[in-house]
Structures are given as structure tokens and as C-alpha cells.
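Entry 14. Structure prediction run on the chain below.
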Amino acid sequence: MTINRRAFLRGTAALGTAAAAAAALAACGSDDDSGDNPTVSANDVDAALAAGGTLTVWAWETTLKQVVTAFQAKYPKVTVNLVNAGTGDKQYTALQNAISAGSGVPDLAQIEYYALPQFALGKSLVDLSGFGANSLDGTFTPGPWASVKSGGVTYGLPMDSGPMALFYNKEVFDKHGIAVPATWDEYVAAAKKLHAADPKAYITSDTGDAGFTTSMIWQAGGKPFQVDGTNVKINLADDGSTKFANLWQQLVTDKLVAPISGWSDAWYKGLGDGTIATLVIGAWMPANLESGVAAAKGKWRVAPMPQWTAGGAATAENGGSSLAIPKLGKNNALAYGFMKYATTGEGAQIRVDNGAFPATTEQVNADAFKNKEFPYFGGQKVNEVLAQAASGVVTGWSYLPFQVYANSIFNDTVGKAYVSNTTLADGLKAWQDASVKYGKEQGFTVN
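Output returned:
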């Protein structure tokens, strides 16, 4: 699960400038809706699966390989061509180019939650209401299910989830007598105590990350992005954004976070040698630690995400992807059959068995899932903590319909707070101003 999350976490994912503009302009002005939204019944889907055919699926998520094998065994007349067209931004650029050219568009595409609104508003995706997708309400946990909707319309089915938790190096905490922080104020106090005890050790690392920042604002109750069709409101000085900026500024000002970028060699080294003591990150992280920081086996544990209010249980999503059907795909009924198989029932279980963190309530609440002991985490039942996090995701969050572009300029705005005298609050204002300017240029009404 490492590769398909890096672009999101770095916050650098972006469609090429031309492709991003094309997507936004299509959202704001195109009269070509590529036909009415189809109505496909369950009988239509069953008939398509029985008749067979060929599907092209663009996705980089590794556990889909096992899903494809099982699906083709169950439906031998169906051939699924699983194509890795690039991770995150690279695939989105290729997909937008194919849509613009009107050829080479896949039948299904993996699209991360933050990028889905951009394609949905660009009228590039099939509205799944006519497929009966709305009947799946309750099948998925709240965060992912809300994330596949845009304007109240379902445009994809969730593949996985990234409710946040605190991953911490127990050995380091025990060595310095630091209690596991339950609140963000306690987290700042722990950062100070750790760095005073060992100037080479930091509570975490951060050089500016759009995905992390928006997730923190989300958990704090912020709703900086409000979208109603092509009408957009951006307020990165709302209560949640201000809470985050004020708290995290303390860590940046006092140099209590390591100036190391996530997923770099130095980052892996710090996680392994104890100089980076925590990660506040999505529930898909265990596999990354096991594979990328093998030397620290037995040292790490997982705890609930620190809270803004003592005794709370609020979390946010960090990462995660959907499967969606592009309007220019050729076989919608067959595509939906595979989509539903891959995201619910047998397919969901196959993916969980191969390391994915589930978006489905059945899998996330299963005793076998929650009771699994992780040797890497000292035998801890990690999924108990992560499953609880999934149920605490704050509702009401929205991404921008041009979030992919907005994330691409994060380090040019907010990122300056990590390398200059610019404050995080000023950086968020600069990000807001640049995003407003871009949205207006693309034809959105932005306030």
C-alpha cells in the first residue's frame, strides 16, 4: 500500500497545468454531457457478467491483482486488463488526456477521494445512481462513502479507507518517560520533552504536506471548502484551520519537527533509528512500516489520534481511493459488475487479506479483522484502534473541485512557513488567495 499513497501524502499530486485547466473548464462550461446517465439494473449486470467481454481497468493499487484473478475465475468469460497508467497525478493526467481526445479511455479508473470531485464536476464520470449504487448506503464506513459523492451524487465506490491514528515508537517514549498524548496540547508537551532529552530526536517530521494539513483541519472541525456545483467558498481561516495553524506553529517555531520530507530515505532512517518518534497518518500505514522500517519491528505501537478536546474521539480521513466509471468507457454494466465485486463482498475481503484497510463496514467490524495480532507492533491488535478511528471521522468535509491543482501549489504557499519567517496562518491565506484566483480563472464563482 506504499506506492499508491505517496502522491497524496506529499501533497504534490497535480494534473499538468493544461489538463487541470481542461478539467475545470469542462466543469464550468461544457454542453457535451456525453449522453444521458445510464440506467443499469442488477439483471443487466448479471447478464453482462454471464455474457462476458473485456474490461480495461486503470489502477495502481496492488491488491487488485488478486481481485482480478478471483473475479476471472468466477466469471470465466470476462477478461480484465489491469493497467498501471501511473500513480496518482500521472494517471490523472493520462486519463484527462484520453477523455479530451475521446479515445483510449478505460472502462474503470482508480481515483483518489480528493481528486474525484474534479473529474465529477468535469462531467467525465458516470452517475451511479442509475445502477442502484445508492442502495449501498451503510455498506461503507462514513468517511469513504461521503467521499465518493459530489453534489449529492455517487460517482464511485470506495476501495479503501485512511482514518487517522497516532503511530508512535514505544521504545523511545519509554526511554524518556513520555506518556502517549491523548490531546494535541499533550502532543506539543511531548515534543518539547523529547527534544530536550535528546536534541537529535523529534516528535515527528514535516516540511509541508497538503494531505496532512487538510486532514488535521478536517479533524479540528474545519470546513474550509464549500462546493455547490460551480459555486465555491474557500475559507482557510475558519475555526478548524485556525486551530491547526496555531498549534502546529508552536512546533515549527520551536524547531520541534524534523525538517525531513515524508517517504525520503532520511525519513525511513529516522523512523528506524528513533529520531522520528511518531506519525499521525492513515490506517494504511502498518504495511509501510513493516516493509520500509523492518529494523524497528516490535518498537512501534498505535494509539488513537490526539484530540482537540479532551475525551473526544474525532478523526479524519488521510488517503484512500475509489473506483469510478468514465463516461467514455465502453461496457458500463460489466464495469459496474467488476467495481461492485472489487469493493464489496468477496473482493473487499480479498483486498483486506492482502493488506488493504477496508472501507466496508462488514470487514472493518469483523472480529477476525479486529483481533488480528501484529508481530511488528509487539503483538498489538492494531485494527481495534483503527476500526474505532473509522467510526469517528468528522462529517461534512468537502474537497475543492480543483483540489488536485490546489495541492500542487501548497508548497509554494503554506510550505514557505517551514523555510522562512512566514507563519502557517499567512501561508494558509496565501494558499486561499492562489486557489481563489485559479478557480475564478477557470470559470468558477469563488468567494
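The chain has a mean pLDDT of 92.
Filed with the rest of this week's runs.
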